[in-house]
Amino acid sequence: MGDANEVMNMLLQNQIEGGLPDDDPQTTYLITAWARICKILGKQFEQYLPLVMGPVMRTAQMKPEVALLDNDEVQDIEDDVDWSFINLGEQQNFAIRTAGMEDKASACEMLVCYARELKEGFAEYSEESIESLGPNCLSEESMKQILEIITKYMVEHFERADKRSLARHEEDYDDGVEEALAEEDDTDIYLLSKVADIIHALFLTNKVNFLPFFDQVSMHFIKLLDASRT
């Protein structure tokens, strides 16, 4: 563990001091190395997320450069290995710059790795990650796992809320107890906001296709609207 932390700090120092651009080949190697270290450190890697997520997200969000070229223009760059061409007929060709697409794919895989290894520790970045990966970024099995996690947190939220409600009616209830309960309220509100962010991102990327999945957890959100729980 200690060696992994030391290596991680060295990699971060190299990335920060070197001012590496996102399309630098070294950035790709760093992103891959960070994911491997994440698997070693597990939850301890959470401390590095604010430093690594910037380059990873920017690489994951890269959009390919495309162009519509005539045959003469294609001849000028057809030897460039960074470009691929599709002949559309009538002297027209669709060109796409494929350089960087492997980096984008790797960065997307790293986001999945962080989410899998860090679980709730990755919650703060989940919405942006889902939006970056786009529609159909989650397999049916992955979607099932997300719904199971949401259900787990919602059930635990209601259990904690019920316990706090009972505690507020106990004989030993006082200002000190209320202060502790209020802190728990704030923690639960934060967790609920992250769950809401995830649901929002899933609707934003999958639109109506997410409705059948949302139906499986909608009862928890309906329960939140119950006036008796306020």
What does this molecule look like?
- The protein is mostly helical and 230 residues long.
- The protein folds into three domains: 1-61 and 100-116, no CATH class; 66-97, no CATH class; 134-225.
- The protein contains ten helices and three strands, in the order αααβαββαααααα.
- The chain has helices spanning 2-18, 25-41, 49-60, 71-77, 101-118, 123-133, 140-167, 175-206, 211-214, 218-224, and strands at 66-70, 83-89, 92-97.
- Strand 2 and strand 3 form a beta hairpin.
- The longest helix has 32 residues, at 175-206.
What spatial order of strands do you see in the largest sheet?
1-3-2
Would you tell me the overall average pLDDT? 81
Radius of gyration: 24 Å
Extended strand count: 3
Tally of helical runs: 10
Low-confidence stretches: none
N to C succession of SSEs: HHHEHEEHHHHHH
Strand content: 5-15%
Content-based structural category: mainly alpha
Helix content: 55-70%
The tally of structural domains comes to 3
Molecular shape? elongated
Largest sheet: 3 strands, antiparallel
- Report how far apart the termini are: 45 Å
Itemize the secondary structure elements and their pairings.
Layout lengths: L1 H17 L6 H17 L7 H12 L5 E5 H7 L5 E7 L2 E6 L3 H18 L4 H11 L6 H28 L7 H32 L4 H4 L3 H7 L6
Antiparallel strand pairs: 1-3, 2-3
Helix pairs in contact: 1-2, 2-5, 3-5, 6-8, 7-8
